[in-house]
Design the sequence.
């Protein structure tokens, strides 16, 4: 236990503490993720053996295989892996910040904000293809991700403002977030009830979180956000560790509290927004994944890298299940909730002690 | 000469100020204890000295410089604070908690230097928590836990140590345990200590200087035997008590009378 916990790594005057167990879990998860990605790329209407998938990815394969793997399947798999990692990281950050497992972006109403924005565009534009809405054509295609992104950012700003009481009050943040989420969900329902039936059905598909038919235009923003925001998150981890001891103790240790809180929220909201904009709300990923990763790594807060890898595994796995296992196409969001939630409950029962945050 | 002092500070939490125009020098190399009835502003004063609260007027001066102008990290290298009833997340190991005390000395590229390791080892040994180092905090008793927190402030390796009610929720034996430790830090490691205590007898026993507060102001300060008198206890705490003299040390011992007892005996 002690050896697996953390061990120092020193190079000259530089030194790091390597969380050994968390690192091993992340590494094992990464191997699993790569296997799932390879299998995900191989199955479909035009099956390609995994060995040839790998060859194609490395630059081999014939023209047909290249087209199917690189153009048709890889973008969708990349979106799945990227969104999973982004949501896993976002959840790990907010849950650590609030010292509360309930404080994930999908519980705090940030996802609901994105949903309201997206549904408003679908309903206003008649995106079901019957036309006649306020917005039409290219504008609506462009508009949905932008509206989802805007909806979540505005929600986050409101949340931040209402949770402020001589500093950011984390208990208040969770309560305000849950309230905000309920209000936004009600507004979304109102729009759906009043929408034309075709628009409502089309919005419903988006609301379930779907990976189907995602291309590079969906993958790019997610991957760029990950490349930019992951290093920021890693820099914030040390301060987050100190903040687990409470606000006073953290400031006593020289942590710049408000800067760290703001940084964490910006990273989490950024990652959530691009994810929801790309695939719709994938319920439970940001909530469940960090808690599952925490139980696998056994630390005192959700691990950052292991949460990212676990998120990727869950969403790519969900994509694989919807495409290959089920006889009918089910939105991936339903599968992530159906796999993730029972797995967390099983882990809770098995570890048999309530470790939170 | 004191490295830390408050100059006419007025502090509050938005409404009425809790501390009004208060000045205090924390004398170097001594143990200073702030006492006073509930709500008198003891903790508020301590938190202001640690830069956790910003005074609405007046200032706190650290090493001749207004503390508000000193960078956060720099403050935490000179001054450690143990907050009132601190809490750690479940599952956190003792040595990780004590290791957090090194935060002000670390950077992202220097997270665990030999100096960090040495300071943590030393803190664990000094506080007699070495044997607990691989146990989660949540499995420890209250007394053990408090010693671990003191170890964390010790690992921070600062000359100034502020403790906000370090003995709350402990039984008497463990209170004495923690204060013995504080006394050792002061004598053997030359730390300047400022703390808030509730128990007047323990304050008398372990302090060089006692600061008595009431209604956000300092009523008087001085050596324990000059401060704890029948009149002060009555006027400041509204407590009828005898003040006896400890036959071993000559230090004052407060013995509350309760209602119905005859008038206090004057020492």
Sequence:
């Amino acid at each position: 236990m002690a050896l697996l916990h953390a061990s120092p790594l020193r190079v000259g005057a530089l030194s790091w503490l390597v969380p050994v167990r968390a690192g091993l879990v992340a590494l094992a998860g990464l191997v699993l993720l790569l296997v799932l990605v390879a299998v995900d790329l191989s199955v479909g209407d035009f099956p390609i053996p995994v060995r040839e998938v790998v060859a194609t990815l490395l630059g081999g394969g014939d023209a047909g295989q290249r087209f199917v793997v690189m153009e048709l399947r890889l973008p969708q798999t990349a979106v799945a892996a990227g969104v999973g990692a982004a949501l896993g990281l976002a959840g790990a950050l907010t849950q650590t910040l609030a010292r509360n497992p309930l404080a994930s972006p999908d519980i705090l109403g940030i996802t609901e904000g994105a949903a309201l924005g997206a549904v408003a565009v679908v309903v206003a534009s008649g995106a079901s293809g019957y036309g006649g809405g306020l917005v039409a054509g290219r504008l609506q295609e462009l508009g949905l991700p932008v509206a989802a992104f805007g909806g979540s950012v505005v929600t986050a700003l409101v949340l931040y403002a209402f949770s402020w009481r001589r500093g950011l009050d984390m208990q208040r943040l969770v309560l305000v977030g849950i309230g905000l989420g309920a209000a936004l969900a009600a507004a979304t329902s109102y729009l759906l009830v009043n929408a034309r039936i075709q628009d409502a059905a089309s919005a419903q598909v988006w609301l379930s979180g779907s990976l189907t038919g995602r291309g590079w235009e969906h993958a790019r923003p997610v991957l760029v956000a990950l490349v930019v925001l992951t290093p920021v998150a890693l820099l914030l981890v040390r301060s987050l560790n100190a903040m687990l001891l409470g606000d006073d103790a953290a400031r006593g240790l020289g942590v710049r509290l408000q800067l760290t809180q703001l940084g964490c929220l910006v990273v989490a909201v950024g990652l959530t927004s691009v994810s929801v904009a790309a695939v719709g709300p994938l319920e439970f990923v940001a909530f469940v994944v960090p808690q599952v990763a925490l139980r696998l790594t056994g630390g005192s807060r959700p691990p950052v890298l292991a949460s990212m890898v676990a998120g990727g595994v869950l969403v790519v796995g969900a994509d694989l299940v919807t495409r290959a296992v089920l006889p009918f196409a089910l939105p991936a969001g339903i599968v992530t909730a159906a796999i993730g939630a029972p797995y967390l409950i099983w882990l809770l029962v098995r570890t048999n002690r309530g470790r939170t945050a | 000469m004191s490295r830390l002092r408050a100059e006419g500070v007025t502090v509050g939490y938005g409404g009425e100020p809790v501390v009004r125009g208060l000045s205090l020098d924390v004398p170097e190399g001594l143990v200073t204890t702030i006492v006073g009835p509930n709500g008198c502003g003891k903790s508020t004063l301590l938190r202001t000295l640690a830069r956790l609260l910003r005074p609405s007027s007046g200032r706190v001066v650290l090493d001749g410089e207004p503390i508000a102008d000193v960078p956060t990290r720099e403050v935490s290298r000179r001054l450690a604070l143990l907050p009132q009833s601190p809490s750690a997340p479940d599952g956190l190991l003792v040595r990780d908690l004590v290791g957090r005390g090194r935060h002000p000395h670390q950077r992202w590229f220097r997270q665990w230097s030999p100096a960090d390791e040495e300071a943590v080892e030393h803190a664990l040994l000094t506080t007699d928590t070495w044997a607990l180092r691989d146990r989660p905090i949540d499995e420890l008793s209250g007394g053990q836990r408090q010693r671990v927190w003191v170890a964390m402030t010790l690992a921070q390796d600062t000359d100034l140590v502020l403790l906000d009610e370090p003995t709350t929720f402990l039984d008497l034996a463990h209170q004495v345990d923690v204060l013995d430790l504080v006394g050792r830090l002061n004598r053997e490691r030359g730390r300047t200590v400022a703390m808030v205590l509730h128990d007047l007898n323990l304050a008398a026993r372990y302090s060089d200087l006692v600061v008595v507060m009431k209604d956000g102001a300092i009523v008087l300060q001085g050596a324990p035997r000059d401060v704890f008198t029948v009149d002060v206890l009555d006027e400041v705490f509204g407590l009828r008590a005898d003040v006896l003299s400890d036959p071993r040390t000559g230090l004052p011992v407060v013995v509350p009378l309760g209602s119905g007892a005859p008038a206090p005996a004057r020492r």
